[in-house]
């Protein structure tokens, strides 16, 4: 009777070990997006998770070759896990960087990538937790990017006005600008539109300044454009009087 109970206990321990492997196996499949065909090869093993001891014995899930097969598959998938972790994490990092880049927010991309790689290679991080953290970062970045759109739209309008002002200055230096021809007519029209647009620059600067101040007040932080802080120029400043400055330097973002 004692031997019988010891045998039962050993079997139960083996079942527990295999069940642990099975759960690990299924977790790795999910993590690595293993196709259904590959998973079906282990149906007889994974069924143990929801089976009783008697059912496991009847299904032959305790056979040595079954145990060995499961362990080999777990080892194989664990070997793939590190590279897959790096792939998934860096894919999210790429997405995060693209969001920031699109709205002229500067981040230390090289430093962030190296930190992630070191974390993965250390083996001291749960991928699910790391991915969840990065998903949160992406969600926050999208929200922040959206909040910057109104300011950035005004920057683009001012940039366009500045470029047209530079073009108009060069155009008005041309002696043959009134000569006949389709191109000359188009340039005359552009010049007229440019003058109208340039007349709006003071109000553009005023509106932009107001938008930035409102954003900073709401967020409690400086509005940076590619790492540079905004400092409004006077609304009567002629951008062409500052030839060594780009529109973004003028904005002092």
Describe this structure in words.
There is one protein chain. With 253 residues, the protein is mostly helical. It has two domains: 2-125, no CATH class; 143-251, Methane Monooxygenase Hydroxylase, Chain G, domain 1, CATH 1.20.58. The chain is 74% helix and 2% strand. The chain has helices at 2-32, 36-40, 43-46, 53-59, 64-102, 109-122, 127-171, 182-198, 201-219, 247-251; strands at 224-225, 228-229. The protein starts with a helix and ends with a helix. Residues 1-11 and 233-248 have low confidence and may be disordered. It is found in: Cytoplasm, Cytoskeleton. It holds the Pfam family MAP65_ASE1. One of its GO terms (cellular component) is cytoplasm. GO terms for molecular function: microtubule binding.
Portion of residues within helices: over 70%
- The string of secondary-structure elements, in order, is HHHHHHHHHEEH
- Describe the main β-sheet briefly: 2 strands, antiparallel
Sequence stretches where pLDDT stays below 50 over 5 or more residues: 1-11, 233-248
Rg from alpha-carbon coordinates: 33 Å
The largest beta-sheet arranges its strands as: 1-2
Q: Give the integer mean of the pLDDT values.
A: 74
Number of domains: 2
What is the first-to-last residue Cα distance? 83 Å
Range of strand content: under 5%
> Structural class, from helix and strand content?
mainly alpha
- Principal-axes geometry comes out as elongated
Contiguous helical run count: 10
Count of distinct strands: 2
Family: Belongs to the MAP65/ASE1 family.
GO molecular function, one term: microtubule binding
Subcellular location: Cytoplasm, Cytoskeleton
Keywords: Cytoplasm, Cytoskeleton, Microtubule
